[in-house]
Model the fold of this input.
Amino acid sequence: MRSAGEQPSRSSHELAGAAWVGPVTACVGAALSAYLASSVGFPAAFVAAAALAGSLGAFLTQLWARQPTLALEPLERRRPGLGASAAGSGENRARLLSVVADSVPDAVVLFSEGGTIQYCNPVARELFFEGQMPEGQNFIRLVSGATAPLREALLGETDRFFSVDVDGRNESYHLSRRSFTVEGEPLTLLVVKYMTREIRRREVEMLKRVVRVISHEVNNSLAPISSLMHSARKLASLIGHADKFQRVFDTVDERASHLHSFLEGYAALARLPRPRRTEASWAPLLAQVSTLYPDVTLPEPPALPGWFDAAQVEQVLINLIKNAREAGSPAADIALEVRTDPSLATEIDVLDRGPGFSAEAMQNAVLPLYTTKPGGSGMGLALCREVAEAHGGSLDVSNRSGGGACIRVRLAGRSPRPASDLTRSRLTLTGG
Done:
């Protein structure tokens, strides 16, 4: 029997069961987040909350493993009857829990009431601390030197969306903040989720739905207009008034044709199929581009192939070269550069010597409907970005030294390395 002052000890089964609470919560939260974002269409804040559940579960797992009174390894010393196999199992479980804790796709930072950083996952190290281990530093002091939007978000008291300019791009994030107490010590957990790509995806999906509806309705009207115009021309010829109405007929035909072409640019985005990625040689693709644009400077085909849908990538190159010409760059100053790596990932630069991008255009160039060209549809770069992101890559715009623009397209390889978008959008708090 236990004495009155003796505290009940936890059994190995209780500890083992509790140790799995974190991984299960993390997996459920991450899976729920991915499902809600891609399939169901719940609001982004709800999705972020699901991601927070996964992140919090991962953190609790790591915290459990670190507690000297609760970790599985000290259990061997309290229970001498445990054999070598049980000890090995405990080590394996600890390693597994560590992997789970460090695999959360969002940035996770835990700090004390005074600001001392207690835990920081790899994504947060890349996002905020240039890959350094920040444990022991004062998070509040580091944040105090950040830009106003970032400082207000990180030190605020509530969950929020915020936007920050990063390397000339406007990037959006969602921050979840939770406070709790562990063994009498107040702690704060921050989870930062990259939202730019998700926001753009939802915008494009909404645009696609609108385009489908508008195209359907307009085409239903254009078809009878074209038929009636054909009949009107024949009737005018029969009664001898064809010359009198020729200008009217031509104007109606021209405007109907223009409207049809205008809608086709948007319909192309709505109809864009998923890429059929295969190992693709660069030689035939570059030869086709050379045939269409003989004055453009093209590189020698890379020795390594790429891993992409050749038809879609060819259309991207055609669109980008066409944009460069329409921006006013001499054809001889337009150049294409291609780089591949052993994973078959590809990086493509389309360079020109046109006027480059203004500050406003730099922010909005890849948004659907935005254009600075008279008569432009604003769909060229948006379509190219959709293709790049469907290939697991990205499209970025920048200005060149000496004038002109650079459009960089990245396409993922056969076995892309798992990396968070957060690492492309660093919000560095160190070295300020």
Q: What stands out?
A: The radius of gyration is 29 Å. The longest strand covers residues 169-182. The chain is about 50% helix and 15% strand.
